[in-house]
Task: structure prediction
Amino acid sequence: MSHKTIKTISDPKLKLEVLTKEEVQKIHEATLHIIENVGVRFPSKRALEVWQANGAQVDFEKKIVRAKPQLIEDALKKCPPKYDLGARDPQQNLPLDGNHVCLGTDGCGVEIIDIDTRKKRTSVLQDVRDIARVADATPEVAFHWVPLSAQDTPVEARGLHELQAVWENSTKHVQTESIYNVHEAKAAVEMAGILAGGKEELRKRPVLSLMQCTAPPLGHDGGSLDAALIAAEAGIPTGFMTMSACLTTGPATMAGTLAVGNAEVIAATALLQLAYPGAPVFYAAAQTASDPRLGVYTGGGPEDFLFGAATNVLADFYNIPLSMGSFATGAKEPNWQAGLEGSLSTFMASVVMSDMLLGVGFLHGSRIWSYAEMMMDCEIFSIIHKMMQGIVVNEETLALDAIAAVGPGGHYLAQKHSRNHMREIFLPKFLDRRPYTQWEEKGDDARDWALEKARKILKEHQPDPLDEKIGSEFERIIKSVEKQ
Amino acid sequence: MSDELFKQMAQSIIDGDSDLSTELAQKSIEMNIPPLDAITKGFVIGVNYIGDQFGAGEAFLPELVMAGEAMKAAVATLEPELLKLGEARETMGRVVLATVEGDIHEIGKTLVGTMLSASGFEVTDLGVDQPADKIIGKALEINASIIGMSALLTTTMVRQREVIEEMDKEGLRPKIKVMVGGAPITREWATKIKADGYSEDAVGAVKLAKELVGKADV
Result:
């Protein structure tokens, strides 16, 4: 397998009905009711002007927009249902066509378990480079989300330093949530254009996508809206992510939280379509339930898992790709909780064919990066990838000849049929199947093996170098933003 | 008679019923019950009960928040009477809360404010996107013992340091203590910017605030 290979889930055999058609329709109608009667806050002059020009009711003082259902529904019809995420290496482009589940790294954290010292520390730019390099060589990772905040770079251009760091160390698609003002958005678009080879090329092969967090409940950040409009104009895929949480930023009930988050996302998505009809957009979500005693956000738990499956039904209803939060965990180290939350969230989001999954590598509510966790998350994805293929039933797989040859008693190890199919059986990297005594002697486990694997990649893997000219163009653009 | 009223007052807080707590406060004024008695023998009993239940893991956040709101409503009704008598409710201390400049995230900060109020602090919440001079100015104006600052972004958490540096320049510490919080805030960061304390959640923030005003055992 070449290091260019990307493992995505496609042609699934498993199905799950988490919401009926009638239930989706009810959530949709509730959402339109919210947008029309309660309104959504758009604290951006430009956004408010777009809404006003299109006949929405705009309160410029409170920055609240109320829009008729027809306006929202018509705007959403202009969303392209399918498009490709571009990559620096075009053979790694990712089809967002409803038949591929692409896994990304998670973002955007602030600390990392150092790969050498195994101690937790503040994240820096070199970490962004290193993680990009490990992800470049990891087939389960289809695209990058800027994983960590480069806290040793100037704040005014931090998002750009992070993009440069990933592009220099990987040929895969990059998505960021850390570009949320006009200056950086313009610069990021320029950088992406240079990498793609021109403005028109960028539209065809968007090597960058932007994710903006909503400001729940029912609000947006002004800088995010302005950045999203700049990206949409350039044809860079843009999504709004709701992280609506039952009990705090959303109602206590899951249906209510789905509706309120849906209102945030589709109202902003409609805005982009009103401004730039046909702009590539995606739905993004990572809803959860707040802990009723602590009120904290960490992600994980049964509500998360159900949201993971339900949201793709909504995104499908609007016929736009989805970027879904999965692998969210409150675990403080790679352990039982991390494995449980990572597995169930990713299974539920995958079984409904969410287009993008975010993502591998984090502990403690997407705050702390762990290379071991990253590698073990990738194995969970591989297991789900295998499960999604289901059970193939045909003459060959029913194996009647082999069954007859072996007869009652005996074994199948010497059968040609076994040799032909044995490699279809999943081969784990990190599941411990050793004899008990061996485990007792060595005293190691999956976490050690996963960390070792990451170390090995970091030591050995050399990504395709980025054209030096492009690199120096990046430097120039970033410098000019820093001077502003 | 007043014993029965005190019981009802406590229950109105436990039930998180702001309308009822306001009504009972009004009634106590009409019955000429000393306002401080209404607070300490009535409403505070309810707050303490919910606080204990919360601490024991029995009560959930909405119950605590609603109890806080009901308490606030009752105290607001009694405040003019207290002023007339020249009395003041004894509080744990005054706290100014804000999300720093450039940042609009506030759910965590708001939760901290509610919990601090429910625990007897007098809280002034300035809201989001607040520059250093506004935060410090308000703290001086109301003679606050604590400034609490929140930030959700790594690009805005640096503002917490700016506020602290400004306070040190003006020699306002250690008289005014500083506590910081927000998703990206770590103990290391709090130490680095010389904050007096940090907490990862609202429950911890109350404990910290009590320590900062020297009332950890209350």
